[in-house]
Specification:
Layout (H helix, E strand, L loop, with lengths): L2 E2 L1 H8 L3 H9 L7 E2 L5 E4 H13 L4
Antiparallel strand pairs: 1-3, 2-3
Length: 60
Amino acid sequence: MSLMSVSDVAEFLGVQEIRVERLERESLLVAAGQDENGKPMFKREDVVKYKEFAERLGGL
């Protein structure tokens, strides 16, 4: 299982970090844990699935 930080996810999705944090707050992206600073960490597989789903709906 590969974990991605907020900045990794933002870069992968092509959005700002604040957007990733909002997606997590709204439970659209579920965090797998937190880093040492309390920031959410995400499973790579979940991020890829979210991106595919969002693209099917018309984009991020």
